[in-house]
Design a protein that fits this description.
- By secondary structure, the chain is of the alpha+beta class.
- It contains 13 helices and 14 strands.
- Strands 1, 2, 3, 4, 5, 6, 7, 8, 9, 10, 11, 12, 13 and 14 form a 14-stranded mixed beta sheet that branches.
- The longest helix has 18 residues.
- It is globular.
């Protein structure tokens, strides 16, 4: 599940779930191939991070043909070097003498923590360089430090990573993290996709912008929907709380807090589904590219064919963007095929999502 950029501004500080112990002291790690240290740092050492990023092989959006690796690195560099970290963020560095080998950044997810009643921490970055064996060793050492920092309270540690990063995957598994989801990001030029849609669809588009009077029918659809993804695949998270989280997310989308636009589509006078999306401001600030996407899509079981119409509606009505991005769970095979077959979108990124638990006596797995 993507976390809307506006959440931090509308959710109060949750001391109960998001407080953490003070920074740890420097510890030395020793490996047969190299000696390195893991240090928790009070602020981001930008020059050191920049040197690390120059060697990192798995930046986001690296498969995107319109951007390529240069834009991918630009996005990652901006996120780390220019985006102001939250006050609750924690940063660790792995150093071999003066050479950076790895970086980890953890940040409590306040909104998810509040909704689920347990502390949820996003490992926003776990970046390691070197050969495969070195990357796995450094990643394991960083994860040990992270787990030690948050172990006093039951905590779910969340990390999303490129599906090709086998060394970090091995480190996560060695530290009792479990795979809970795989997400696929599709992207396409907005002008090209509109032209394509006008050629293949010859009937009027049934979608329209959401109105407040639509909310009761939308809520009924959300209650009948199963959105899938990592929260449902983690046995430590009660399903009823995950259901409630999605209902609240949909409500905040309708209020314009977690979405810039919500579209609905009706059949026989009743709303059969909805789609929400938002302008990706971080991506725009990093690259100057205008991209919309990352929202919720839900369709009543008896109106499954409306999914394509809702996506089409969003793409036709949104005129102030250059690219459309659609993120889906790999388990959603219907949409997976639709984005490629119907909308001719390209895969920009495939990411695995791992959960690891600490602070649970006798069980540190998800």
């Amino acid at each position: 599940m993507s976390e809307p950029a506006t959440r931090e501004s509308v959710i109060p500080h949750l001391q109960q779930f998001c407080s953490a112990p003070p920074p740890a002291t420097r510890s030395t790690m020793s490996r047969s191939a190299q000696a390195f240290t893991i240090q928790q740092v009070p602020s981001f050492p930008f020059e050191t991070i920049d040197r690390l990023l120059a060697r990192y092989p798995f930046p986001p959006y690296r498969h995107w043909s319109a951007g390529g690796r240069d834009v991918a690195r630009q996005i990652l560099r901006w996120d780390l070097l220019h985006k102001a970290p939250a006050e609750s963020s924690q940063c660790w560095l792995a150093m071999a003498a003066s050479e950076p080998l790895g970086l980890a950044v953890g940040e409590p997810s306040r909104w998810e923590s509040e909704q689920l009643g347990t502390r949820m921490v996003e490992l926003r970055h776990l970046i390691v360089v070197g050969n495969r064996a070195q990357r796995q060793e450094v990643a394991e050492a960083l994860l040990v430090a992270i787990k030690r920092f948050w172990m006093e309270t039951p905590t779910c540690l969340i990390h999303r990573l490129d599906s090709a990063d086998s060394a970090t995957i091995a480190a996560l598994e060695a530290e009792s993290f479990r795979l809970v989801d795989t997400g696929v990001s599709f992207i396409r030029d907005a002008t090209a996709v509109r032209s394509h849609l006008n050629r293949i669809f010859h009937h009027p588009c049934p979608g329209r912008p959401y109105q407040p009077e639509d909310h009761p029918e939308m809520e009924a659809i959300v209650r009948r929907s199963r959105f899938g993804g990592r929260l449902y695949h983690d046995s430590h998270l009660p399903e009823e709380k995950v259901d409630a989280l999605y209902r609240e997310w949909a409500r905040l989308c309708c209020e314009g807090i977690f979405a810039d636009q919500v579209m609905v589509a009706a059949r026989a006078g009743r709303i059969g589904g909805f789609i929400s999306y938002q302008f990706q401001r971080d991506l725009y600030e990093a690259t100057g590219m205008r991209v919309v996407g990352r929202g919720l899509l839900a369709v009543a079981p008896e109106h499954r064919g409306l999914a394509a119409e809702l996506i089409r509606s969003a793409m036709l009505i949104e005129r102030q963007t250059e690219f459309f991005q659609c993120d889906i769970h790999l388990e959603n095979l219907e949409l997976l095929g639709m984005y490629g077959r119907v909308f001719r979108m390209e895969v920009a990124h495939v990411r695995h999502v791992f959960h690891g638990w600490v602070g649970i006596q006798g069980d540190e797995s998800a």
